C-alpha cells in the first residue's frame, strides 16, 4: 500500500506518506485525498510536514480549502499560520459550532467552485457547470447528511448568479465574462469564508 502511494505521489516524501496513512488508519482513499492536497500546496519535505501537522490539528474543524488559503497568505510560515488558525477557532467558536447541514453543504460547494476558477482562471472546464452533474452530486450529498436538497440547490443557483455564472437554455451554467473578474471572485470567496455564505433562499418561499 505504501509503495503504491509512493508511485502515485512521487513528490511526497515517504515519511509523510507513511505518517498520513497511519493518521487515517490505513484508509487509502482519505490518505490519497490529503496527499493530493499536500502536492498542490507544499513542495519541500519541511513544508509537507508542517502542512500535514496543521491538517492534523485543524482539519476536523477547518476545511482544507481554508487551511491552504491561510497557509499561503502567511507565506507558508508554520508558526504564523498555526496562530492564525487558532485565532479563527477561538473567535468563531468553531470547536463548538454545529453548522446547519444545508449551510455546510452550500458553503463547501461555493468555496470549491470559487477556488477552482481562481486557481485555474484559464481552464475552460471550471467556467462551466453541468446542471445534471451538479444536481446528482447535491442530491447524494443531501441524502447522506439528511439535508434539505431543494433549499441547497436553489440557494446554490442564486450564489452562482452572484459569482458571475449564467444559466443557458440547456440549463447548464456558464461563466458569462470572457475575462475572469478575479477581484470580484476573490471578494466572493472571502465573503463565503468570513460570513459563511453569501445568499440563501428563504425556506418559507420554497
Automatic annotation (TrEMBL):
InterPro entries the record matches: CUE, UBA-like_sf
GO molecular function: ubiquitin binding
Highest taxon listed in the record's lineage: Eukaryota
Signal sequence, start to end: none
Domain CUE: 1-40
Record-given protein name: CUE domain-containing protein
Amino acid at each position: 500500500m505504501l509503495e503504491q502511494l509512493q508511485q502515485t505521489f512521487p513528490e511526497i516524501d515517504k515519511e509523510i506518506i507513511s505518517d498520513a496513512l497511519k493518521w487515517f488508519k490505513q484508509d487509502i482513499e482519505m490518505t490519497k485525498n490529503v496527499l493530493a492536497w499536500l502536492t498542490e500546496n507544499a513542495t519541500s519535505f519541511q513544508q509537507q510536514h508542517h502542512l500535514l501537522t496543521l491538517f492534523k490539528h485543524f482539519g476536523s474543524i477547518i476545511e482544507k480549502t481554508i487551511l491552504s488559503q491561510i497557509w499561503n497568505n502567511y507565506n507558508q510560515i508554520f508558526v504564523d499560520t498555526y496562530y492564525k488558525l487558532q485565532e479563527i477557532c477561538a473567535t468563531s467558536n468553531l470547536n463548538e459550532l454545529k453548522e446547519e447541514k444545508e449551510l455546510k453543504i452550500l458553503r463547501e460547494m461555493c468555496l470549491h467552485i470559487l477556488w477552482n476558477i481562481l486557481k485555474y482562471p484559464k481552464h475552460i472546464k471550471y467556467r462551466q457547470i453541468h446542471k445534471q452533474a451538479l444536481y446528482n452530486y447535491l442530491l447524494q450529498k443531501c441524502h447522506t447528511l439528511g439535508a434539505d436538497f431543494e433549499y441547497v440547490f436553489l440557494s446554490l443557483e442564486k450564489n452562482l448568479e452572484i459569482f458571475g455564472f449564467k444559466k443557458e437554455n440547456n440549463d447548464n451554467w456558464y461563466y458569462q465574462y470572457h475575462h475572469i473578474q478575479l477581484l470580484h471572485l476573490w471578494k466572493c470567496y472571502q465573503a463565503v469564508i468570513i460570513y459563511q455564505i453569501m445568499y440563501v433562499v428563504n425556506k418559507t418561499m420554497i
